[in-house]
Amino acid sequence: MQTETMDAAEEPSSILWGLDPLFSAFVRLYVSDILHMTESTQVPGIYFYNQHPVYRVDVLGTVVYKREREDFFCYGVDDGTGVINCLCWKSELVKDDRPTGGEGGDAPGGFNVEAELSKLRRSQQERCRLDIGDLLRVRGTLKTSRQQREIMASNFYRVCDPLMELQISWMMDLPQLYRDCYDKKLQLDPHATSRDSPVGGASIVVRNFLEKNSVSRFRENDLKELLEPLVAPPSSQQLQQLLKQTLQHLQDEGVVYPKVKSPDQVYLVTSRDKELLVAILDVIREDSRREKYAEKGCHVLHILSAVRQRYSVNVSRAALQLLVQSLESSSDIISTSDSHYIAF
Amino acid sequence: MLPSAAVFYFPWELNSDLQDGQSVRTCGRLVDYQPEESKATLSAQHASKEHHVIVHTMFVEPFNPIIGAQYIVLGETDGNEGIGTTVRARVLNCVDGVNVALLHKAVIEQRSFFRERERKQCDTAKSADAT
């Protein structure tokens, strides 16, 4: 059986696994793909399909092999591409050997608990006790035991599909799922700067510095000393480049903005710019009184253009968004919809 | 010991090209059943020709034979008879009322997906070798 492990260098880091939506899903793979997935070297029990970390699967197939033990059923499921063992634990109702069909006397009102319970037991057994040839749906975790890949079922039931409708729709859905999700590589936001990148690291250093020292305004050169240790080997050109990229990144995030463009650029830290905060609040308060915005609220772009006219033309949307969110947290304004705000 | 996977074949594809003992799945209309010999005949129409599949039913008896109904059979090929390929059934399910055209479409869609994927893998393997 396939117990190949992935080359450690090719595996995506386990920190990133949670970002992949497939990691939390019961992935509908073909059984042949499930059997051929490579196991992770970082965490055994996690498998990779096309760089996607998978540990839970969803399978629909015909039972071609059956083994029953006291506590569980072991069904071999064939979906046309492969056969896999599924360990299906018996629930208490299924294990119950009491003869079903004990219909006792009717209680007044017509509800007989014993009869209902035996009906439940019967239906549960019908759904869980399968024979060869029945259609089985299994959702569970993957594991490799004794060099064989198995599914530990968390949920399983016999599917009633006399006209093959479900099987046909499964056959039509799976190629689409593969094309749309499984065969596509995970796309993390291409614009996101990760912590590991030099700009990401530098941004964090600058943010910590601004936070710790309660800086409200600074010049580019003030940060030079801060970023020097991050450039190795030391080079003024690289330092300049890193500085420019970091400042651009911080501006894109709205953390800082250049209030007045000048040769000796001064940047303001958004969260500490009280004047900007007051200007935004004034804009929202005044416009909320106008009939046009009284009910629906002001759109964030409208607020942005008003603030740019009154206060500074260089205020970015990201900076505005930051302050609008802090105003909302302090209950000075309310959001009436996703991007509309109104004074409280 | 798990049996091997039963790939879907249309009845007209079950010919001597297939190896003996290969697990297959197919479907057709039940036209004949001889319980004494445990032999059933499924038939399917394709390209203006009627194709027959002989099915040995000893493992799936007793079953309620509905002549004229659609059946799905899963089993191993057994081409020794000389009368064409036969299938030794492990599973024989009546699926009367199934949308045969849709089933065929689904099978073809699945096959074209596998072909497409195999071609892509070959291409990436070739380009990896070239670099």
Uncertain spans of chain A: none
CA-atom Rg of chain A in angstroms: 31 Å
Estimated share of beta-strand residues of chain B: 35-45%
Structural class of chain A: alpha+beta
Instruction: Characterize the biggest β-sheet of chain A.
Output: 5 strands, mixed, barrel
What is the number of strand segments of chain A?
14
| Helix coverage percent of chain A | 25-40%
| Form type of chain A | elongated
Strand order, sheet with most strands of chain B: 2-3-4-6-5
Beta-strand segment tally of chain B: 6
Give, in order, the helices and strands of chain B: EEEEEEH
Unreliable parts of chain B: none
Coarse morphology of chain B: elongated
For the residues shown, what is the average pLDDT of chain B? 89
| Helix/strand order of chain A, N-terminal first | HEEEEEEHHEEHHEHHEEHHEHHEE
Determine the oligomeric state from the structure.
heterodimer
Here the CATH topology of chain B equals: OB fold (Dihydrolipoamide Acetyltransferase, E2P)
Secondary-structure class of chain B = alpha/beta
Strand order of the largest sheet of chain A: 4-5-6-8-7
At CATH level 2, the architecture of chain B is Beta Barrel
- Termini separation of chain A comes to 65 Å
